[in-house]
Amino acid sequence: xxxxxxxxxxxxxxxxxxxxxxxxxxxxxxxxxxxxxxxxxxxxxxxxxxxxxxxxxxxxxxxxxxxxxxxxxxxxxxxxxxxxxxxxxxxxxxxxxxxxxxxxxxxxxxxxxxxxxxxxxxxxxxxxxxxxxxxxxxxxxxxxxxxxxxxxxxxxxxxxxxxxxxxxxxxxxxxxxxxxxxxxxxxxxxxxxxxxxxxxxxxxxxxxxxxxxxxxxxxxxxxxxxxxxxxxxxxxxxxxxxxxxxxxxxxxxxxxxxxxxxxxxxxxxxxxxxxxxxxxxxxxxxxxxxxxxxxxxxxxxxxxxxxxxxxxxxxxxxxxxxxxxxx
Length: 327
What we know:
The chain is built from twelve helices and twelve strands. The chain is an alpha/beta fold. It folds into two domains: 6-85, Orthogonal Bundle (Arc Repressor Mutant, subunit A); 92-327, D-Maltodextrin-Binding Protein, domain 2. The longest helix is centred in the first third of the chain and has 26 residues, at 60-85.
């Protein structure tokens, strides 16, 4: 009889395309992944995966099995979510998924104000460049760029707009001069951030135009490293206006700007969880209170010398405040 715990391993291999990546995702060793896959294939009496272009992909039989495994996984996740949705207490963990810059520099300050009125709630921040799977309870709430995602079971709200521009250090511009047009940016050194080899910033900052530096001087998978490389003079790079606090960099092509929307998203099964709904509503209010910070780089309500309590709660007292909840 099949070992039920082998099915998630098979699904992870099919999703990631390799034994090593599947092991990293599940926090088990690569030899263990390979051994469990072989045991499952032995039980079935046929191959579940085959090599194609350097990746492991499901065979025709494996694809049929994978459909069943994915449904099993969805049902198991639904059981977990249904348990969470019955919790009425304002205590326990709330897992929030956010990208590196927002999650590292804004979220801790903003959520501390929330905890002043909800001291028994633990904020668990998942900081990553990839989107958390809310259906699988990788997070309870996600802060997502450009859209809520494609799942019908997600409830989301577009909350604020971020303004992005191109930035460089004074030292870099002194050595190489400043571009006078977007086309001239192609002749400069660039700084970029990637995930799995895919550019995360330049493709959006150029607003669909096929313009970016022909040569990149610094590439990383870290927003913090991206910022410091620009400040160090490695080249020109995209930055949100709100991310340049206390940095020795200047804006290049001040008339050029791209705006990107941020959404707050949760799974609809969690709308009855008191603590998750409280955190969801608060995040919408907090982000809206800092709308000028995100859009234009104005001072934040939560850090940088401001008094977060007075600034934020003054907004709460407005009689015409729009109800925050989208759940």
